[in-house]
Amino acid sequence: MKKFLDLGLHPLANSYLTKKNLNLKEKKFRLEVGFDPENYLVSILNTVSKEKMFNKDYPYKSSESFTMKNSFRNLSKKIKKVFKPKKILEIGSNDGAFIKNFKKNHVIGVEPCKNLALITKKKGFKIFSDYWNFDLAKKIKKRNNIDLIYSANTLSHIKNYNEIFKAIKFTLSDKGVLILEDPSLLECLKKGAYDQFYCEHIYVFSTIAVNKILKKFNLEIFDIENTKTHGGSNRYYIKKINNNFYQISKNVKKNINDEKKFGLHKFSTYMKFANKVKNSKKKLNEIVRKIKQKQGNIIGYGATAKSCTVLNYCNINYKTIDFFYDTTSYKINKYLPGSKIQIRKYKKLDFKKNYYVFLGAWNFKDEIFKKERTFIKSGGKFITHIPHPNII
Ligand code: JHZ
Fold first, then answer.
1. Which numeric CATH code is attached to 2-35+268-391?
2. What is the pTM of this model?
3. Which residue minimizes the CA distance to atom 10 of ligand 1?
4. Dist CA 330 CA 248 (whole Å)
């Protein structure tokens, strides 16, 4: 791994603070990002144990946004129509935003965060509240013939991808389909979205990197969809190499070509990105400083894991941002890690003079701007750092 980016010391992105532990010293790790020129993999260099990140207190729920619910609903319709699977396995089923679109006896979930697993278990779904690994795969395969595996925003969170794919290959039927969905490295670099890097995002995948991993397991991509979710993601449709039922779509070559054209296979591209990130920090600080000089107020919108990276890297904290609005009940009245900015229960934005809103959940800009159209029409202003720091 060749290091190209050092974002400094960071707390765990989803470890929101309570009022009681606000003044305790937070555990921090160095957030550095590297590129492996042989496998084209981009990953963070210092990882945190999965038990520290994904446990019974995990706050993130996929169902908090219409965008994600719609995305899962539309994909489910496609899966039923095109692949007609008899049994689906979802790795990282979170609060059930995807599996709830299927009949209970057609789907199995794997979700290590017990609080989230409980939500779907209570609704009658079959959920294994464990980390995905080969032992679990054996247990599941014993009783089920899995002909479709889906995993969104999960595999990028698991360090040992060899074990993951070994377990996936073992579990999936020979004619089965694997659908993986994760943020796209190409979009991350194009948008200057350095906040895709935090403790949980061990990898940000590209097609060329996924291809290399899959080859080792006799798996191959037969189609790719570029989706808008989470700031631009790739949805990979994967099969076993011997399965000739699906033809390889032209999209696969197109994605590889686009990535190579951008230079995702070259270290120099990442050095350029690192420079862009440094400039982004400078520019965001300038914007914020100017607002503060004019006695302006800034609040945040969407206390995301990504915000943790931006705020800590740019040294922006509770002295600059009054509070964040968020819809997630678990986060309310807690404080963002590191920056110690309070999170309040979401209220529709009211226009006030000299009042700015930092868009933490920039990946839901369309959904949020629709919701806040009255605020925007009245002249309300958002601050964003994507694709470069500016006021909109
Ligand atoms: P959102 C998490 O990252 C963590 P985060 C994880 N590691 C990952 O990969 C992605 O999700 C998938 C709130 N919100 O989705 C809800 C509003 O308040 O960008 C959420 O707290 N109002 C698993 O945290 C946050 O914003 C709204 O209108 O970076 C969005 O978090 C909307 C739409 C959202 O993921």
1. 3.40.50.720
2. 0.97
3. 153
4. 43
